[in-house]
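Customer ticket, subject: "Can you confirm the structure for Deacetylase sirtuin-type domain-containing protein?"

Message body: Hello, I'm evaluating your service for our small team and ran a test protein. I'd like someone to confirm that this is what the system normally returns, since I don't have a reference to compare against.
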Amino acid sequence: MPLMRIPYTAPLPPPTILPTSASTLPGAVAALADFLRPPTTTTPNGKTVILSGAGISVASGLADYRGSNGTYTLNKTYRPIYYHEFCASHEARKRYWARSFLGWTNLHKSRPNKAHHAVGQLAEMGMLSSVITQNVDTFHPKAHPGLRTLELHGYLRSTVCLSCRTEYSRESFQQDLAALNPSWAVFLAEMLSSGALSTENPIERRLKGLKTNPDGDVDVPGIEYTTFRYPACPACLANPPSGTKVQQSADGAWQPSSTAGVLKPAVIMFGESIPDPIKLAVEAAVDEADRILVLGSSLATYSAWRLVRRAQELGKPVGVANLGGVRGEEQFFAKVGAGGVGREGVRCSLPLEEILPALVERLAVGCGAPGMRTEMFRPAPWG
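Agent reply: Thanks for trying us out. I re-ran your input and got the following:
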């Protein structure tokens, strides 16, 4: 059965913090420390798989979907492009690539933040087995190249041909778009010099007349996209697949008379099936780990939610550190007591760029003592 990336749009309930001590930064750090370091006699692997979402990249200046400044929160009419629309419509592709052209510069300049680097430090301590990320920003591979990262929804660093599957650098593709659309290139330069694109903060961009969405999408109200042009796949242009034709204008723009050679971002668009090799790899990563820790994701896409459900069905503890609600979280923590210490499960709702570096610092203090108890001191009940 194909596994597709489908958004979940129903309202999410507020989180129930577990254990209750995890409502504060020290309490959340203590609970997560216990979660990551359970007694070694019952955990032969002893390692955690991370599942990360857009929330971990917010501190890098990128937009998310459901946070307080997220796209679904501030832009009620936002609707992402779907895979079938991109494949079927030349006009839809013009619109997509024009908006991506405007948003790419700042997305490309953005860098991993403290939370990404803390994940790498946790791996160096031997706590983690791998990272599964829904993000397409390449921050995890950049921040911790030595830790295996599985990119569930692909990546924006490349484009890929729908016909021959050849990949090309998105940075080079940006240069091709600029050459094919000189007036748009001038417009982009003007926006950059004015500071209109100097921030990914959606509130600041709205004050400048822009709407910003995840994955480098910039909407300029009132602008027409019909004049925008994009190049054809060079490989298909040189050697069209059997039974197809690829045509371009004199200056290199893909022509709608073509039947192949369309380039798309190397991301899994909404409504697109996740390739079987990736599907099997992320399932294996969950199966091999002893527990799963969700960082910065509301699990609003089924492709991510099902991995946490899979872990739970296999009897693995679940931890979630996410600002705001998470899809179906009540079932993940139904057996986790409010008065626990974090070993059986954790649910906290604090900024990852604060909690993860603090967690690294706490674990570093006691990393030489396997199995050491890390829960917070509690006064005696008769005190």
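A couple of notes from the result: The two ends are 59 Å apart (CA to CA). Residues 70-74, 368-383 have pLDDT under 50 and may be disordered. Feel free to reply with more questions.
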